[in-house]
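Q: Sequence in, structure out?
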Amino acid sequence: MSRNLMLTQFHNIFITPKRHLIPFKQDIMGNAELDEAQAGIKVAGRSINNLRYADDTTLMAESEKELNSLLMKVKEESEKAGLKFNIQKTKIMASGPITSWQIDGETMETVTDFILGGSKITADGDCSHEIKKHLLLGRKTVTNLDNILKSRDVTLPTKVCLVKAMVFPLVMYGCESWTLKKAECRRIDAFELWC
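A: Exactly. Output:
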């Protein structure tokens, strides 16, 4: 039985200042040769083992052994560059049961969810709460635009442009990470019709 493991570091993977290290971090991640590693989860026939968003990095693997291998590659490349790998900011999440995880004698915190790129990723893959949150934000935005959308002085094409520019991007932000069920698809369709 395959189970996916995710390891993430919140905020900066390396010591501050963050904004000056982001390009440097990309070099380190490239030097770790994660793209060439066989470890990772299979998506459309490809092995994906890391996701990077701004200064956050998420490593993914199907086994503890694979994840440990990826983690050690990143840690070694960081140390070669004179940077300290921050274990306190490193979290681990698994889609199945996991024992405590240690590296260099320090235990990493196990979590059931984390935020990546503004989206909440959960161990069970359920994102109904995330979709509901975005639909609620969209409804609130439409309600705030109510005077404009009901005005006879504003043309229909302008109203459509407003909804497309201000509402839909807010609702769909982070949708790339959503796992959709039929119920969520119906909610999204209903919201679009409501607009």
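The longest strand covers residues 56-61.
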